[in-house]
């Protein structure tokens, strides 16, 4: 369990780590049901400002801890799986601490590399068996040339979580000489050369944010032939501006499903701490408790909270439009991946939405005959009345 007190002054890490701590225990059991080896790759491992005492507030600590738990669970089920980690850290002091820290995770085969991540990528890629599943985390402080990690991004049986430093991209995207590494991989799409720079220059605010993010998502998706590339927005602590985007790459709808569960959890963590920060700021300025503060931990007007509620509204609207466009109905297995790819909503929440619409006679699901079934099954066909 992540303790928010570990993250004073680095609240963005709490959002990222909430995502990891939700994603990994949900995804690993699904992966090791068919793969005998789960490989975690962290190209910028740290540790960064750990305060927990046992590295439970670091990305590698969360990952290795969850891998250890998953391996033990599989052993209880009579299944032997191999857990492997490749961790890269450039800074000599951090690297020395990292090599000591990983000794506490003896059930994971850990390989540590000191130096520039780009120089170790090919070596790491060559050591991973074809059948192994890879989860690649690319979480730099700046904006590296992501193309140099293609050898890790491109193989099958891979999912990726990349920290896209939106703040830098928003400032420099479109300026060819200010940040050439960013320009290099953002410029790799096939439309008229330079047209995207002109488009960015004409946009502001949320439209510009969406355009830059979508271009990064598309460039990364193309790099490895991925089907899905949703993004989690991590905001600055004191403002409503985005700091970075965690872009997730997957080729399978199950990965997308796990991502959205972890995504919503991370947004809830962000909304909670930002609501608390704002309430405390108002209290300090006024010298008294805020009589108009939200009675819940999350202020419903907070940007992350609005993203969650807006996602649910958008998901229902998209689904209803899909059904209106398809006479005769659509199988549930063909509905939910498209909606989850486009909207911030979990698989369960979307299923609950269908159940409510069915109860109100707004959709038909003829095969849904048992009251014991709480959400639609993949083979159920959903249609308008």
Automatic annotation (TrEMBL):
UniProt biased composition (Basic and acidic residues): 277-288
Taxonomic superkingdom: Bacteria
Annotated segments matching region Disordered: 275-296
NCBIfam families in the record: tcm_partner
Protein's recorded name: Three-Cys-motif partner protein TcmP
């Amino acid at each position: 369990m992540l303790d928010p007190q570990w993250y004073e002054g680095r609240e963005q890490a709490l959002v990222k780590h909430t995502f990891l701590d939700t994603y990994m225990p949900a995804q690993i059991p699904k992966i090791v049901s068919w793969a005998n080896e789960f490989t975690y790759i962290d190209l910028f491992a740290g540790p960064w400002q750990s305060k927990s005492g046992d590295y439970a507030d670091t990305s590698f600590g969360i990952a290795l801890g969850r891998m250890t738990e998953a391996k033990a669970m599989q052993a209880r089920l009579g299944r032997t799986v191999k857990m492997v980690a490749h961790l890269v850290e450039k800074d000599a002091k951090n690297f020395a601490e990292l090599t000591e820290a990983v000794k506490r995770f003896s059930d994971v085969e850990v390989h540590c590399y000191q130096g520039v991540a780009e120089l170790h990528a090919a070596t790491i890629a060559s050591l991973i068996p074809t059948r192994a599943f890879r989860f690649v985390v690319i979480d730099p402080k700046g904006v590296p040339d992501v193309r140099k990690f293609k050898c890790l991004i491109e193989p099958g049986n891979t999912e990726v979580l990349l920290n896209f430093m939106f703040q830098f991209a928003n400032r420099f995207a479109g300026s060819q000489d200010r940040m050439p590494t960013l320009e290099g991989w953002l410029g790799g799409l096939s439309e008229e050369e330079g047209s995207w720079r002109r488009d960015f220059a004409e946009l502001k605010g949320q439209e510009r944010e969406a355009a830059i993010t979508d271009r990064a998502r598309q460039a990364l998706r193309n790099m490895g032939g991925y089907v899905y590339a949703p993004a989690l927005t991590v905001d600055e602590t004191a403002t409503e501006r985005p700091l970075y985007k965690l872009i997730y790459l997957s080729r399978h709808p199950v990965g997308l499903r796990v991502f959205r569960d972890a995504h919503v959890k991370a947004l809830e963590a962000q909304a909670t701490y930002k609501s608390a920060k704002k309430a405390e700021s108002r209290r300090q300025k006024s010298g008294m408790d805020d009589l108009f503060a939200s009675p819940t931990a999350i202020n419903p007007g907070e940007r992350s909270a609005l993203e969650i509620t807006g996602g649910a509204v958008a998901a229902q609207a998209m689904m209803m439009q899909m059904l209106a466009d398809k006479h005769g109905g659509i199988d549930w297995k063909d509905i939910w991946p498209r909606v989850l790819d486009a909207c911030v909503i979990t698989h369960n929440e979307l299923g609950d939405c269908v159940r409510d619409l069915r109860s109100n006679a707004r959709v038909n699901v003829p095969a849904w005959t048992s009251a014991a079934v709480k959400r639609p099954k993949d083979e159920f066909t959903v249609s308008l009345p």
